[in-house]
């Protein structure tokens, strides 16, 4: 809305911690007061970094000219639905929340928002894909606001070496929604006296982008593609393995398989990558023998590689002690290498994860012996805070990472290979009966993810669905039923939806088994999939 002729302007700013919402509010107040306006700002803090943004509410009031004895206006402390001229959102979903609260109205409100995402806890903790659709927000914003300006302001801020508040301030200026000249905006930044040059660069970037037009003016994101990995080293074994893939597999499998080989070389080594190729050759030969399309092979190629590159304690320690990880942290936080810095890793290994790092026989003994488990739990399990900038902290993780060469002897390795072999055996048995069902079985490892209880829960559901696939063999709608079961398993941690789906599919015994453990949560003992006969 054009506010040039308005005596009172109401502004709502929503920002999360660290985005400079308070600084932005101070800039607006300082700018207004420098031109003779009366300005007031209040704020209502959110619950936490990502479970609620702070709402800054500003009212700007222009006194009537020439009336020295005019009464001082009483300004509101909080925004009211339908009475906001400008809404500034430092993140896309915060724009959606402002619309839900009624702050944005089509007859009055200019909405300025950044299109980037800071994912909510509900999105990140979901067992399946739960990211909100940004197009829904863009459509609602276009319909509910009088004017909508949106682009990736976080990217502009990073490119300028500043924070998003400066880009938002520039977009506010570029929108022309306030009756102040650009020079007044820039002077407000200079008056702040902190990071002035970087803030002015970010301000200019936001100002120019906002003048490109209404709506979301981001360039379309390129469709992500997996590039074929090429090895540049001197190890002839790796060159021979890649050449074998080029020769023995269809063109459509070469790119995902070379990426899988790259992962497994980094995870364990050449012999492990060779095992991956051998397993893929068995699946491909099976499909070729049945004269079926290569859907199964394509699905197995990626999921098998991801599963084989499982993240155990050795892998976690290795990742946390890599030089490029520290370089990334320095870059993200803006720390120079000559500056003194301290990083703390917050870890919470469970006794199962500790025992699975031991040789297979010893690990089984520890888990089966109450006294040994109690001792190991007391010494190694539980919450840990490790400072990787200290010699002791770094060495504790570095020594665990060095166990990579002995990974194939650990209990975790043994268990994972047993599970993978069981899954491949089920695929082999299923594809001979129902190729479409086998292609859905190939997707079941998506249930296995995370650490600790999340990982145990995923394994439990994976085992149940593998057994469900065995029972469904021969039914005309077996693949469709398994898809529904898969979707139900991803809906919640409680297992309620999965139990209901199992009952609807006539698998009452599996539903009871799920219910007898109080849902899939908290399960430690994992059922292994049994190959169909």
From TrEMBL:
InterPro entries attached to this UniProt entry: DUF6537, IorB_Oxidoreductase, Pyrv/ketoisovalerate_OxRed_cat, Pyrv_flavodox_OxRed_cen
Keyword NAD on entry? no
Q: Which residues form the Pyruvate/ketoisovalerate oxidoreductase catalytic domain?
A: 17-207
Do you know which Gene3D superfamilies this protein is assigned to?
A: Pyruvate-ferredoxin oxidoreductase, PFOR, domain III (3.40.920.10)
Segments forming a coiled coil: none
Q: Which UniProt keywords apply?
A: Oxidoreductase, Pyruvate
Q: Which residues form the DUF6537 domain?
A: 258-463
Q: Which terms in the Gene Ontology molecular function aspect does this entry carry?
A: oxidoreductase activity, acting on the aldehyde or oxo group of donors
**Protein name, UniProt field:** Indolepyruvate ferredoxin oxidoreductase beta subunit
């Amino acid at each position: 809305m054009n506010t040039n002729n308005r005596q009172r302007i109401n502004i709502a700013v929503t920002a999360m911690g660290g985005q400079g919402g308070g600084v932005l509010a101070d800039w607006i107040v300082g700018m207004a007061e420098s031109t003779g306006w009366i300005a007031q700002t209040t704020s209502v803090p959110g619950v936490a970094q990502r479970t609620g943004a702070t709402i800054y509410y500003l009212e700007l009031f222009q006194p009537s000219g020439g009336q020295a004895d005019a009464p001082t206006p009483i300004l509101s402390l909080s925004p009211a639905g339908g009475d906001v001229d400008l809404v500034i959102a430092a993140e896309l979903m915060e724009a959606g929340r402002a619309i839900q609260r009624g702050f944005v109205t089509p007859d009055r409100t200019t909405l300025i928002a950044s299109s980037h995402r800071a994912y909510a806890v509900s999105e990140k903790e979901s067992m399946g894909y739960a990211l909100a659709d940004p197009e829904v927000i863009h459509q609602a914003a276009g319909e509910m606001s009088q004017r909508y300006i949106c682009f990736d302001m976080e990217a502009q801020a990073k490119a300028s070496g500043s924070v998003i508040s400066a880009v938002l301030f520039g977009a506010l200026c570029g929108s022309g929604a306030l009756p102040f000249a650009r020079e007044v905006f820039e002077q407000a930044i200079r008056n702040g006296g902190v990071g002035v040059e970087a803030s002015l660069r970010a301000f200019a970037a936001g100002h120019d982008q906002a003048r490109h037009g209404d709506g979301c003016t981001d360039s379309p994101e390129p469709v992500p593609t997996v590039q074929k990995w090429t090895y540049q080293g001197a190890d002839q074994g790796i060159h021979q393995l890649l050449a074998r893939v080029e020769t023995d597999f269809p063109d459509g499998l070469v790119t995902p398989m070379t990426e899988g080989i790259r992962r497994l070389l980094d995870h364990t080594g050449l012999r492990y990558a060779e095992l991956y190729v051998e397993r893929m050759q068995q699946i491909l030969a099976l499909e070729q023998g049945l004269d079926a399309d290569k859907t199964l092979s394509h699905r197995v190629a990626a999921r098998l590689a991801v599963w084989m590159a499982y993240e155990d304690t050795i892998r976690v320690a290795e990742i946390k002690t890599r030089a490029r990880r520290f370089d990334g942290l320095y870059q993200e936080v803006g720390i120079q290498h000559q500056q003194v810095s301290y990083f703390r890793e917050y870890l919470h290994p469970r006794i199962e994860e500790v025992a699975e790092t031991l040789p297979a026989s010893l690990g089984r003994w520890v888990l089966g012996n109450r006294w040994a488990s109690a001792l190991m739990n007391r010494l190694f399990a539980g919450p840990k805070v490790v400072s990787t900038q200290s010699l002791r902290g770094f060495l504790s993780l570095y020594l665990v990472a060095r166990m990579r060469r002995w990974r194939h002897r650990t209990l975790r390795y043994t268990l994972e290979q047993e599970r993978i072999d069981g899954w491949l055996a089920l695929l082999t048995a299923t594809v001979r009966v129902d190729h479409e069902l086998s292609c859905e079985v190939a997707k079941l490892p998506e249930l296995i993810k995370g650490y600790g209880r999340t990982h145990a829960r995923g394994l439990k559901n994976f085992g149940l669905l593998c057994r469900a696939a065995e029972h469904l063999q021969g039914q005309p709608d077996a693949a469709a039923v398994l898809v529904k079961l898969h979707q139900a398993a991803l809906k919640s941690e409680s297992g309620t939806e999965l139990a209901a789906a199992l009952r609807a599919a006539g698998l009452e015994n599996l539903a009871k088994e799920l219910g007898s453990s109080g849902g899939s949560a908290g399960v430690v003992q994992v059922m292994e999939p049994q190959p169909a006969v």
